[in-house]
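[step 3/7] inverse_fold.run input=structure_tokens len=229
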């Protein structure tokens, strides 16, 4: 039994390998890019719109509302990053119905890369919103002793993001694979449907946590009033 799509090698030359994780990751990215281009090339502001445009507007509106609920005052500013995270993880889960497909999120390398994107995005948006000096100062509040703890917190939550997503996606795929070998076909189909739901939940949790981290980094401290020390 394969524990990760990294073990599926499609092509290899020396130490250079093209495994299922890379292939399916780029396939999902290509599908999302082409799909977005096809849907957005015929956008309309009239009452008569295509079903795809209606679906796109529902997805975008839903993502924007969720971003706003985590405390980000300008949700559309973060739509590109957080929306892309959600759609990628969700698409990786939904494609499991395709025979022969292995979700790239079942590989720790993919989930680590996604977590590192969040790790970089948090200080980036924090610096853009607060400025470099104010953002760095937030690491030593309320006292300089908090600096190492804040740094450890940044690293540990990045690791937790990667391991949580990897563990949940890999465990779901393994359970379905085991059930396919010991039970009739009907039960694994039900579990596959449950796995799709679980994948969507994981996509939601991952993007929401990323939004919460960014919201914390972009929170501007209120200026002290006169007399406060």
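[step 3/7] decode complete -> sequence:
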């Amino acid at each position: 039994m394969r524990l990760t799509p990294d073990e599926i090698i499609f092509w290899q030359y020396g130490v250079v390998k093209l495994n299922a994780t890379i292939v399916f990751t780029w396939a999902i990215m290509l599908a999302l890019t082409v799909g977005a281009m096809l849907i957005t090339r015929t956008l309309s502001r009239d009452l008569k719109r295509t079903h795809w445009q209606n679906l796109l507007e529902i997805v975008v509106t839903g993502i924007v509302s969720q971003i706003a609920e985590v405390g980000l005052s300008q949700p559309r500013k973060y739509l590109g990053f957080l929306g892309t995270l959600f759609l990628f993880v969700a698409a990786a889960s939904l494609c499991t119905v395709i025979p022969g497909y292995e979700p790239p999120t079942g590989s720790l390398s993919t989930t680590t890369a996604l977590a590192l994107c969040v790790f970089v995005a948090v200080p980036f948006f924090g610096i853009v919103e607060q400025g470099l000096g104010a953002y760095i100062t937030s690491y030593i509040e309320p006292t300089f002793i908090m600096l190492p703890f804040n740094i450890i917190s940044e690293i540990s939550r990045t690791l937790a993001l990667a391991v949580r997503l990897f563990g949940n996606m890999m465990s779901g795929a393994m359970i379905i694979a085991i059930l396919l070998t010991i039970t009739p076909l009907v039960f694994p189909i039900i579990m596959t449907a449950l796995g799709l739901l679980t994948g969507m939940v994981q996509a939601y949790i991952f993007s929401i946590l990323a939004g919460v981290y960014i919201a914390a980094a972009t929170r501007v401290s209120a200026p002290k009033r006169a007399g406060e020390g």
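[step 4/7] annotate
Confidence is low (pLDDT under 50) at residues 221-229.
Residues 5-218 form one domain.
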